[in-house]
Amino acid sequence: MGTGLLGHGLLPAIDGEIVIARVTARAGCAYEWGVHAATLAQQAGLSREQLRATTDTDLAGSVAWSPRHAALLDAVDELHDTAKLS
Fold first, then answer.
1. Among residues 41, 50, 43, 39, which one has the least CA distance to residue 20?
2. Which residues of 14-23 are buried (b: 16+ CB within 10 A; e: fewer)?
3. Mind listing the pLDDT tens digit for each residue in 24-78?
4. With a threshold of 0.70, does the pTM exceed it?
5. How much is the CA Rg of the chain, to the nearest whole Å?
6. Which of 24, 26, 28 has the alpha carbon at shortest distance from 37?
7. Phi-psi bin for 57: left (phi > 0), alpha (psi -120 to 50), beta?
8. Distance of CA 57 to CAs 22, 31, 36, Å?
9. Pair 25, 51: CB distance under 8 Å
10. How far apart are CA 8 and CA 5, in angstroms?
């Protein structure tokens, strides 16, 4: 998935990093989350606060996400929780 989002995807880099950070956080992939947190997320334009917020289970209490980024996070959560996307 990461290769598709990073190397060949159509999403802007920040969108791809938000999705990757959320997927790895929800799946408990601390190593992969950390690899992206170390350099790739910042290079894509994700702030430290936003990056930390990708690990929050309650997005309502975290940073103010743009509608687009909130929708990406909701989609990742829905897929993680239900294996479906409405």
1. 41
2. bbbbbbbbbb
3. 999 999 999 999 999 999 999 999 999 999 998 777 566 789 999 999 999 999 9
4. yes
5. 12
6. 24
7. alpha
8. 10, 19, 19
9. no
10. 6
